Amino acid sequence: MKCLICETIFNSNRSLCKHIRSEHTQTIQEYYDNYIKSEPDGKCIICGNNTTFVDITKGYHKYCSKACVNKSSTHVKSVMRTKEKRYGFAGYNNPDKHNETWYNRPEEERKEIYEKRDQTTISRYGDKNNYTKYKQTMKENYGVESAWCLPKVQSAEAWSRRHDTLKVNGNQSKLEVYLEQRLDDLNIEYIPQYGDERYPYHCDIYIPKTDTFIEINGYWTHNTHFFDPNSEADINQLEVWKERAKTSKHFATAIRVWTELDIQKRNCAIKNNLNYIVLRNIKDIDKYVDCLGIQ
């Protein structure tokens, strides 16, 4: 690293920064602004507001706030790719992990966080629920006090009730809805939650034409594969889940699903020589449906 003021060479950024502060009596941000900074450093790439300085190598943040980060298509695509890679589904969120982390906090700590949140909201918006500011903004922008009064939101809510992706009715997941949409596009007849004497578990989707039983094992309780009692990795994973199950009913359920129920279903399909398909993510669904479309 070379000082751009006196051209002295340094072996590390730390040494360079110390030199800049002591010998040239400049802050690192001042040095960066005077000798390194170029457009659009220091400006949010979404809204153009000023951003905060990070360090001599990274310069300034690209975004001024979380709101702008979430508006960035680059960031959103990156998040979706990460979720797809880790969990098999770009829209994945893990409420069970959130609940586990939250409720493992001491009660006093949770209470303190709630109180701090309420105080911040009151100081910014005038009431604990932020409803006064919400109504004011809605009135100014849309002429109504609630988003539910807008026709666009009402129609979206109606669609959501018909195509439940949040398990409101306890039956469908996002992946199931996605598979149904793909099958509808190809005019392929199917029966959701189907079971008979050969397979009494009620599979997620049944295709009568090919007598195919499909299970969507996209939720984390199924893991990413069938449990193998001879696999050292699976045994280690099971031990981790058993430890977590001591304080979380979700992990106790996951153990039963992964090590017992999923295996029972697969063995039943094998025993009765069924056309049995297990799909775990969007890629699996697309690959399977694309093959159906070729036939």
Query: Helices and strands, in N-to-C order?
Result: HHEEHHHHHHHEEEHHEH
Strand content: 5-15%
Could you tell me the number of beta strands?
A: 6
CATH class of the domain at 174-294: Alpha Beta
The appropriate CATH architecture of the domain at 174-294 is: 3-Layer(aba) Sandwich
Q: What does the average pLDDT come to?
A: 82
State the CATH topology of the domain at 174-294: Endonuclease, Chain A
Largest sheet: 4 strands, mixed
Rounded Rg: 27 Å
- Which structural class best describes the helix and strand composition? alpha+beta
Q: Provide a count of the helices.
A: 12
Strand order of the largest sheet: 3-4-5-6
Helix content: 40-55%
Q: Which regions are unreliable across 5 or more consecutive residues at pLDDT < 50?
A: 155-170
**Judging from the principal axes of the Cα atoms, what is the shape?**
extended
Through-space gap between termini: 62 Å
